[in-house]
Fold this protein.
Amino acid sequence: MQNVELENIGKKLSEKLSHIAVLDTDCLEQDGKFYVLEMNARFGGQYPFSHLAGADIPKQIIDWLYGLPTNPSDTNIDIDTLGFKDILPVKL
């Protein structure tokens, strides 16, 4: 999903908090305005979809730790990628 307002919220949080990696953020939209509900410094449940769409954030974080620049091929995604999560019960 691409949304300019959500992107701006993400940029503002990044600048204010100076975090260097992943910040999973839950937002609520009400009456056309977004509200930040929760922030967690971890990969969220949506990350598998970002990875499926082309992002390799763990690799990029390692590169940053070695002082390497951001590699667009590790951070850009194909927004037209479709996927779904599945839970497969396993009997032990």
Summary: The chain has two domains: 1-42, 47-78. The mean pLDDT is 92.
